[in-house]
From TrEMBL, chain A:
It is found in: Cell membrane. Keywords: Cell membrane, Membrane, Sugar transport, Transmembrane, Transmembrane helix, Transport. Signal peptide: none annotated. Gene3D superfamilies: MetI-like (1.10.3720.10). One of its GO terms (biological process) is maltodextrin transmembrane transport. Residues 97-295 form the ABC transmembrane type-1 domain. This is Carbohydrate ABC transporter membrane protein 2 (CUT1 family). It is a multi-pass membrane protein. Its main location: membrane. GO terms for cellular component: plasma membrane. Belongs to the binding-protein-dependent transport system permease family. MalFG subfamily. It comes from the Bacteria.
TrEMBL record, chain B:
This is Maltose/maltodextrin transport system permease protein. The keyword Transport applies. It is found in: Cell membrane. It comes from the Bacteria. Part of the ABC transporter complex MalEFGK involved in maltose/maltodextrin import. Probably responsible for the translocation of the substrate across the membrane. Residues 305-526 form the ABC transmembrane type-1 domain. It comes from Salinibacterium amurskyense. InterPro entries: MalF_N, MalF_P2_sf, MetI-like, MetI-like_sf, TM_PBP2_N. The chain crosses the membrane at residues 39-56, 62-80, 89-113, 306-328, 340-362, 397-418, 438-458, 479-499, 505-527. The keyword Cell cycle does not apply. It is a multi-pass membrane protein.
Length: 309, 537
């Protein structure tokens, strides 16, 4: 019966302005047809989206819990697992956390800096090989470093025979590998944004006697701050959850990142210490999720700005 | 938004005067801070480079040393000469790009043509030494040598007092040499100038390192080696294998079998028995021939490739379909509290991906997982261990992970479609479905197509999800390599190269090259169909 009425009223679905016209107290049938069912979809999707997260959170509050006890949601309320998490000499969670922040932080800062330098050159200067350079960057980004993971491993093990400090099992080595991917996607994203800053600003500064370094560091970088934040955040999220290269480069448990450590933790004692893993997962997710929720507008804007051109 | 070619920042050919003016402006505005930062930065780079050169020359790696020197000179030349602005801005990123992205890709190309892997990871000389070492036995009734363990610059040496009272020093792969000025204590040498003698505590701390050291008695490895079980006395060990350098063969002194180098990278007996470790050799196209002709590898390779494409395509399709549906549902201004739904629905996108996969793996566990025990009341559905259910589960979890992104993106794209188009279509008498199908969807696809392509590329190499959720399993037992039903190409490369006792870097790199060619093909096609190349100016 709803289908019959709907056909007479095609505007109901597509015309958003109807909200303004529509009376606030509609009969239930009409309310349901227009917006009520949307709430049903919304509630269903919210449960789908949020349930696994609630499940982890509840599991983390159930100390000594296994996979089985995690099934009774919110039956217990204790933060003991969070305390236990930091008292496991075999799984140095605090070190993993610190390493992840350190490696992610330095790599994303480096990525932003290297990418911004390159994007400035491509956007503001005309030189031989500029077009070829841009094309090459576009092509290179199609081949992620992941593909060359064997060669990265062998290269680093070769380096560590001569310079152990930057070879295998070294965080500096890992950061250097991550910086290898700094150009590519990011430069392209930034290049698009740099182009939207009018070059008359540069010229005005030039006339006032500013050199290229001053223009770049004090004028341009401030104007493109939003894209720098987006690239920095995306690269931070990317490096903190990167597993493949981190798992082959970092060998000592004390040097590993959260992704590598937590994966090994789960694969070693999958169901026994589920609540401790859950506590670790909750703590690991908090910084990233907070950043995401606060900056979601910029991220979405940045994502679409880079690709929809 | 950036389609219009931006205005040129300056005339292409600057006159000599304007160049000079720029230079003067640069010099005037930079100030001493910029100059100081530049000198400091270059100083650090040069110091590191000189240290690296020093070490490289000492270890006689001439090629690498030459490269380091060339790059350092180039960097100095770029930053100390005038002009060359683009180079100044591009050099740092390009150096990292060249080493850790371009070089490693070419290097994997080279590895694909070798037999690099477990048992074949070094030179022939190293393999001979390793074989002689591993077959060592203590010479019966041989005298014991008094020993003091010395250390110099992190390198451990043995100071040996022979039974006749003469003193000599040697180390790993450094044959014994006589020394005269050792400090003696009761006829036993206990120290030497320039070296630190290790005490009992130090020896305990470096136990494994010291136990692994074997000092050749003379230049000829067949004469035997000195090894120590306790750090205070050493014994003579000889190998049961004997290396004949002239003929290039290994002979087992116990059985008399002769193993010879037949060009496969290992000493092989006439009966076909190999002595491992062997060494690394170039094998030409062998790895590719193995991948395409050996049934136990070709079968899995084909099924993994097909699954990779299916997985990437279906992931994009399902996430986009759900995201678009939700975007349409929530793109209605009459609806209240849309903001709250929106925040809850992007939670999966904000949660770190590798953690989500691990959590879902727990929830889908066959015996104890939440889905089976609670939602299905104790059923034992093999979500992750049945071949087809595992594929479905992977897609389902990826839908959970990916729909928020598509929802955000399509919402943005829908809102960017001008309202007038809908109104015009309505006036022309179009039904809602027709408006969506013929007006909105085409416009939407134009703006999100690049995002769909990059989402496809991302899922094509979505290692974390596969590896953390199913570990690629359930394993295909008939396959000659370690692969399972849900493995995608990149996780197969990883498993062949790094998981299990038998690592095969050569074969893994050959697989990587195959992916490389596939990806190149896809990107050429997608570039031809998008106009992104034409927009570069």
């Amino acid at each position: 019966m709803t289908t019959a009425t709907q056909q007479h009223n095609p505007d109901a679905v597509i015309d958003p302005d109807a909200a303004v016209v529509g009376h606030p107290k509609r009969p239930f049938k009409r309310y349901f047809r227009e917006t009520g069912w949307r709430h049903l979809v919304g509630i269903a999707m919210s449960i789908f989206a949020a349930f696994p997260l609630l499940y982890v959170f509840s599991a983390s509050l159930n100390p000594g819990g296994t996979l089985v006890t995690a099934n009774s949601l919110f039956s217990n309320f204790s933060f003991q697992s969070y305390v236990d998490l930091f008292n496991r000499p075999q799984q140095p969670y605090a070190a993993w956390f610190g390493n992840t922040l350190l490696i992610g932080g330095i790599s994303s800062l480096g990525t932003v800096f290297l990418g911004a330098l390159a994007a400035y050159a491509f956007s503001r200067m005309r030189f031989i090989g500029r077009r070829v350079g841009l094309l090459t960057l576009l092509l290179v980004q199609m081949f992620p470093q992941l593909l060359a993971v064997v060669a990265i491993f062998l290269l680093l093990s070769g380096i560590s025979e001569i310079f152990p400090a930057i070879g295998l099992n070294s965080q500096i080595g890992l950061i250097m590998v991550y910086l290898g991917g700094a150009l590519g996607v990011n430069t392209y994203l930034m290049y698009g944004f740099f182009n939207t800053v009018p070059s008359s600003i540069d010229e005005a500064a030039k006339i006032d006697g500013a050199g290229h370094a001053r223009i770049f560091f004090t004028i341009i970088l401030r104007l493109v701050a939003p894209i720098l934040a987006v690239v920095g955040l995306l690269s931070f999220v990317g490096t903190t959850s990167e597993f493949v290269i981190a798992s082959i480069v970092l060998i000592d448990p004390d040097k590993q990142t959260l992704a590598v450590g937590l994966y090994q933790f789960v694969s070693q004692e999958f169901s026994r210490n589920w609540s401790i893993f859950a506590a670790g997962a909750v703590l690991a997710a908090i910084p990233v999720m907070t950043l995401f929720l606060f900056l979601q507008k910029y991220i979405v804007g940045g994502l679409t700005a880079g690709s929809v051109k | 938004m950036t389609t219009s070619p931006q205005t040129d920042p300056g005339p292409l050919r600057q006159s000599a005067r304007s160049k000079r003016a720029t230079r003067i402006a640069d010099a005037a505005s930079g100030g001493w801070k910029v100059v100081a930062a530049k000198i400091l930065g270059l100083g650090v780079v040069d110091a590191i480079a000189i240290y690296a050169l020093f070490v490289l020359v000492r270890s006689e790696s001439w090629l690498v040393a030459g490269l380091v020197a060339a790059v350092t000179l180039l960097v100095n030349w770029i930053y100390f000469s005038r002009g060359k602005l683009p180079a100044k801005y591009l050099a740092p990123g390009l150096i990292f790009l060249a080493i850790f992205q371009i070089f490693v890709l070419l290097y994997s190309g080279y590895i694909a043509f070798t037999n690099y892997g477990t048992g074949h990871n070094s030179t022939k000389e190293d393999a001979v030494n390793a074989l002689l070492l591993s077959s060592q036995n203590r010479v019966e009734d041989s005298p014991s040598y008094k020993l003091t363990v010395l250390e110099q610059l992190g390198e451990i040496s043995f100071l040996v007092t022979e039974p006749d009272g003469s003193v000599s020093i040697g180390g790993n792969e450094r044959p014994l040499e006589d020394v005269r000025n050792a400090q003696l204590e009761g006829g036993v040498a206990v120290g030497l100038n320039g070296y630190t003698s290790l005490g009992f505590q130090d020896i305990i701390a470096k136990q494994t390192e010291i136990a692994a050291i074997s000092v050749p008695l003379t230049d000829d490895p067949n004469d035997g080696m000195l090894r120590t079980p306790d750090g205070s006395s050493a014994f003579l060990y000889t190998s049961s294998l004997e290396y004949d350098e002239a003929a290039g063969t290994m002979r087992d002194t116990n059985s008399g079998t002769v193993y010879s180098d037949i060009g496969t990278g290992a000493f092989t007996s006439d009966a076909g028995q190999e002595l491992l470790p062997g060494w690394k050799i170039d094998v030409g196209f062998d790895n590719f021939i193995r991948a395409f002709s050996e049934e136990s590898i070709r079968g899995p390779l084909i099924s993994v490739t097909v699954w990779t494409f299916a997985f990437a395509f279906l992931s994009v399709f399902t996430t986009f379909a759900l995201g678009l549906f939700l975007a349409i549902v929530f793109n209605d201004k009459r609806m209240k509290s849309r903001k709250y739904y929106r925040i809850i629905m992007i939670l999966p996108y904000a949660f770190p991906g590798f953690l989500s996969a691990l959590v879902w793996a727990g929830m889908m566990n066959q015996e104890f997982g939440f889905i089976n025990t609670v939602l299905l009341g104790g059923a034992e559905v093999p979500w992750l261990t049945n071949e087809w259910l595992a594929k479905g589960s992977v897609l389902f979890v990826n839908l959970w992970l990916g729909f928020p992104y598509m929802f955000l993106v399509t919402t943005g794209a829908l809102q960017a479609i001008p309202e007038e188009l809908t109104e015009a279509a309505t006036v022309d008498g179009a039904k809602p479905w027709a408006i969506f199908r013929f007006v909105k969807l085409p416009l939407l696809l134009v703006s999100v197509a690049p995002l769909l392509i990059s989402s496809f590329a991302f899922n094509f190499n979505n290692f974390n999800l596969i590896y953390m959720l199913t570990n690629g399993g359930p394993r295909d037992v008939s396959a000659g390599v370690n692969v399972g039903a849900t493995d995608i190409l990149i996780s197969m490369v990883y498993k062949v190269a790094f998981v299990g006792a038998n690592r095969d870097y050569g074969l893994a790199s050959a697989f990587a090259i195959i992916i490389f060619i596939l990806v190149a093909g896809i990107s050429i096609i997608s570039f031809r169909r998008t106009k992104s190349l034409e927009e570069l100016n």
